[in-house]
Amino acid sequence: MGVSNQQKKYTVHDPYFWKITISLALASFFVFASMYAVQPLLPVFVSVFNVSVSQSSMTLSLTIIGLIAGLIILGFLSDRKGRTMFIKLSLIGSIVPFLLVPLLDSFSALLLLRLVQGFALAGLPAASLAYLNEEVDPKSIGVATALYISSNALGGMAGRVMTGYITDHYSWEIAFYFLAIIGLFVFLIVLIMLPESRFYQQSKLSFRKDLTGFLYHLRNPSLILVFGMGIILQMSFTGVWSFLPFHLQEEPFSLSLHAISYMFFAYGLGVIGAPLAGWVAGYFGLRKVRMLGIIILSLGVFLTLSHSLPIIVIGLCVSCLGFFTAHSLTATSVTDQADHHKGSASSLYLVAYYIGVSLGSTALAPLWEKSGWLGLIIFVGCLPITYLIFVRMVSIRFART
Fold it and tell me: Locate the Major facilitator superfamily (MFS) profile domain: which residues (predicted)?
């Protein structure tokens, strides 16, 4: 009987299910808080280090570049070396830069350590979903995955709010130390609670065969359009949030960093938007609801052109709801479009998604510097709608041929 129990995957009725779920949710919370913690601090870095807006935005985009490299490399390695090791190393690698950066007092060092941190951050997303699918019963996987993804949004929101608040009251160095302390606390919980893998099977395929399967999807036109959607959605969304602190510090708002940090609470709608989108799509169809999400995203973006702060806040909330609706359904469509190597297809979508983050920060900085908020918002507001029309035209052409 004991042996039989050992062969069963964990369900919501098992204590180990909740140990796994809580551990990965906390780890996800910290990793995504670490990733986006610098976003409200971009104006601070411009002032403290005497750098341009473009250079300051690299504190986010270089992290994303490191993350993309990590997703590919660590994803392959986790198939060969196991899951839990990379989850724990991801946390340690994310904590150390927060302790070192304030001691070095160099912007170049900050950029280098953020790049390294991005690579380390990738260990969690590269291994966690595979670990969940291996250890948790299919009937319970939905609960665990939903809590994990919700923690992504909560972590991203909390990281931005905490660093903005602490920096405004103390300093950005204290904010980094505070994140390191949270990380150490999360690491200890994961170290104690996260069970070792029981159903992990080491990949016997050669690296070349894995890479061939990974790149196979780039020859699928339908998937390329989906990957492009991931880039466009995130580029537009990140573009708004990256330069919002600069905009709200200027006249006529003249807000403090503390006040600006509260704007990131709009991300809370991401926790609602993703599951709501899945439920509504079950009734009306994925494409229709995703199209609606994209329109809502653009509408919210355009609302931020207002000179009224309450309307800007409403616009940010609307854009968050639209973005997380469109993003979650676009991610879902990846596995529908891929006829095999579905895991590789999902990884490629994540890569595309984070390329969009990088483009939405550094690549849009020259547009912000030249055209200000008006030029930036017109561009990022029109971008998703334009791409949606492009996808529709290409799909019609495919259907005819």
Answer: 20-399
SS3 track for 132-192: HHHHECCCCHHHHHHHHHHHHHHHHHHHHHHHHHHHHHCCHHHHHHHHHHHHHHHHHHHHH
* Closest listed residue to residue 36, CA positions, set 362, 357, 352: 357
Note the CATH number of domain 9-194. 1.20.1250.20
Q: Is 146 exposed, middle or buried (0-12, 13-18, 19+ CB in 10 A)?
A: middle
Do 9-194 and 216-401 come out as alike in CATH topology?
yes
Which fold does the domain 216-401 belong to in CATH?
Growth Hormone; Chain: A; (1.20.1250)
* Predicted confidence (pLDDT) per residue in 105-156, tens digit: 899 999 999 999 999 998 888 788 778 778 888 777 767 776 787 788 889 8
For the whole model, what pTM was predicted? Answer: 0.80
Task: Show the tokens assigned to 168.
Answer: 């405004």
